[in-house]
TrEMBL record:
Keyword set includes RNA-binding: no
Source organism superkingdom: Bacteria
CDD domains documented for this protein: Sigma70_r4 (cd06171)
A GO molecular-function descriptor: DNA binding
Keyword DNA damage in annotation: no
Keyword line: Sigma factor, Transcription, Transcription regulation
UniProt name for this protein: RNA polymerase sigma-70 factor
One Pfam family of this chain: Sigma70_r4_2
Protein family per UniProt: Belongs to the sigma-70 factor family. ECF subfamily.
One GO biological process term: DNA-templated transcription initiation
PANTHER family: RNA POLYMERASE ECF-TYPE SIGMA FACTO, RNA POLYMERASE SIGMA-70 FACTOR ECF SUBFAMILY
C-alpha cells in the first residue's frame, strides 16, 4: 500500500474507527519487524517487540494529535523500545553482581552485539579511577565480599559498597549511551 493510501486509514482510526487499525497494522507491521530485527538480530525478539509497539500505539492513539506525524510517533516508540531492550542486555551483563550467571558469548542471542558490548565495557572499565576499578574487579572477578575487599584495602565496607555502586551506575550509563548512539 503506497504511503498516501495509508493516511486515510490512519485518519479514520484516530477518529475512532477501530476497524481501520487493521490496515494500519498490516501496513506498518513488516516495516517495524525489519526495523527491530536490524537492531535486535533475533526473530523472536523482533516479533515480540513489534507486537508490543503496535499494542502501545493502540493504547496511546489519543497521543497522536496530527495524523501526518503518526509514522514519526510510531518509529520513535520503536526506537525507544529497542533501546530499552538493549538496556536489558546491558543490565544482564552486570548480572553477576546480583548473583546471576554471566552470559556465555557462545549462547548470546547476538554474539556480534555481545562482543561489541564487552569491548565497550572493557574500555569503560579501563577509564575508571584506579582504586574504583581495583575494588570493582576484586568483587567481580575474584568474588570477594565487600568486607574482604575492605580488609584487604584497609577501607570501610561502606566505601566498598559505594564504589561498586558508583561503578555499576557509571558503566550502565556509558553502555546505554553507546547503544543509543548506534541506533540514532
Amino acid at each position: 500500500m503506497p504511503h498516501e493510501d495509508i493516511s486515510g486509514p490512519i485518519d479514520r482510526w484516530l477518529q475512532g474507527d477501530d476497524t481501520a487499525f487493521e490496515a494500519v497494522f498490516h501496513y506498518y507491521r513488516q516495516r517495524l519487524l525489519r526495523y527491530t530485527f536490524r537492531y535486535l538480530k533475533n526473530e523472536t525478539d523482533a516479533e515480540d517487540l513489534t507486537t508490543d509497539i503496535l499494542v502501545k500505539v493502540w493504547q496511546c492513539r489519543q497521543s497522536v494529535t496530527n495524523p501526518a506525524t503518526f509514522e514519526n510517533y510510531l518509529f520513535t516508540i520503536a526506537r525507544n523500545r529497542v533501546i530499552k531492550a538493549w538496556q536489558k542486555k546491558v543490565d544482564h551483563l552486570f548480572s553477576l553482581d546480583a548473583g546471576g550467571e554471566a552470559t556465555d558469548p557462545a549462547t548470546a542471542n547476538d554474539p556480534v552485539l555481545y562482543g561489541e558490548l564487552m569491548r565497550h565495557y572493557q574500555e569503560s572499565l579501563a577509564g575508571l579511577p584506579e582504586q574504583r576499578r581495583r575494588i570493582f574487579l576484586l568483587h567481580r572477578e575474584q568474588n570477594l565480599t565487600y568486607k574482604e575487599i575492605a580488609q584487604q584495602l584497609n577501607i570501610s565496607p561502606k566505601t566498598v559498597e559505594n564504589q561498586i555502586s558508583a561503578t555499576l551506575k557509571q558503566l550502565r550509563t556509558q553502555l546505554a549511551q553507546h547503544l543509543a548512539s548506534i541506533i540514532l
